[in-house]
Hints:
Oligomer: single chain
Helix content: 25-40%
Number of helices: 20
Bound molecules: hexanoyl-coenzyme A
Amino acid sequence: xxxxxxxxxxxxxxxxxxxxxxxxxxxxxxxxxxxxxxxxxxxxxxxxxxxxxxxxxxxxxxxxxxxxxxxxxxxxxxxxxxxxxxxxxxxxxxxxxxxxxxxxxxxxxxxxxxxxxxxxxxxxxxxxxxxxxxxxxxxxxxxxxxxxxxxxxxxxxxxxxxxxxxxxxxxxxxxxxxxxxxxxxxxxxxxxxxxxxxxxxxxxxxxxxxxxxxxxxxxxxxxxxxxxxxxxxxxxxxxxxxxxxxxxxxxxxxxxxxxxxxxxxxxxxxxxxxxxxxxxxxxxxxxxxxxxxxxxxxxxxxxxxxxxxxxxxxxxxxxxxxxxxxxxxxxxxxxxxxxxxxxxxxxxxxxxxxxxxxxxxxxxxxxxxxxxxxxxxxxxxxxxxxxxxxxxxxxxxxxxxxxxxxxxxxxxxxxxxxxxxxxxxxxxxxxxxxxxxxxxxxxxxxxxxxxxxxxxxxxxxxxxxxxxxxxxxxxxxxxxxxxxxxxxxxxxxxxxxxxxxxxxxxxxxxxxxx
Length: 514
Ligand code: HXC
């Protein structure tokens, strides 16, 4: 065959394979409000940056007439490209080919691109849109999943792993996203579940829609399995690009420095906290008043909202923020908020992102529900993560820091490098009301005017302990600062701690209270 004909043959073969699962299946995909795998890669990555590999891979399955089925690219598109000029590895499952189901060769394409990502220190983005294990391939499909989960685990803490759920993600398939760092979902498109509605109906006799079982809202508001909710696929891609701008490409490099922009918040920082200690306010207003350009990239915004976590920049450098949210349950720590914060702290530590903790909480949430849900085990995770983290850790106590909550929110005792307190800080074993009721119980009961005595005792306790000066006198905090000085102090100490090293005893790994 002449060179010209060989090239012609190549173009014909390529054109055929890149038609995905055919026009009918593509039309069905669009009718469901979904893009195709190729559209998605094109929209997410920098223009013309995608380089595809393994386009001509074919499945080897012979059962159930499979040898007659030509599954283009075996239902998954893989390759490399760039986002904002930085390399990424990517795979996108193609629902138009056998429902994006995962057979052995489909899995091998994914594991190949994962191996590239790990070797080259490049973030991995996986777009999931699949009916799960390819039923016709039996145990080979399961083997494929196992090989993906193994690599997800090996890559954890080495390269960022981002999962985008843009269709069904059913059965054991959900465990790959669950092992990755960030999961993105889109309203009415994403569906994640272990057992689908049909199995639930058969086994339990209950009827439930896929949306109510594991739709985007369920996964971002109830379960916390997903981190980012978007209304459209395009909005989701914007969120991914935004996230990528904050994080480093691997655990050996730093996140990009960006131009410094002053906060543009219009409300003066010292006007945000209400005078009455029990009145709520939005911690995000404080964050916006402190950090560059008043930008806060919040993670898991709609789940365990009593704690806020996310990235911001301080003097152009990425920092991770953990802050109690007085607007929700007074900002208490509970099972979910402890899980949420603990995982984020470990993310920041793995990628050398300094941690800033903003404290205002009355403690751990009391109650039978929490005790029975394991608040001891879950609450311990936040203690473990802060103690384990060796990145620069700076804490600012804004208002309440009571009891276990004071210790847990990156106190000096868990290894904070710097702890600052505003003059409004109240650092005590518990709130003045509760404390006075316990320690002056008989004095109050036996007094001629118990109500007045109680009031006076609460006042006495507040003056003695509900302030930052006892902690300051003991060196548990480093400085009482004016709220308006917070940004300056944070910039100063984070600059000083840039070369922080903190050695720990040699061990294989710790045993966190998972
Ligand atoms: C092979 C599959 C498939 C699968 C879908 N298809 N899922 N083929 N294996 N797992 C095929 C369909 O036969 C169909 O092929 C095409 O994909 C489109 O599927 P539809 O059912 O027509 O689409 P839709 O109505 O949109 O429904 C999508 C769906 C449904 C909800 C995902 O297909 C479904 O319930 N699939 C099974 C989901 C599931 O239970 N997976 C778990 C498998 S077990 P044609 O040729 O007709 O177009 C598992 C365990 C892994 O994953 C364990 C790892 C640890």
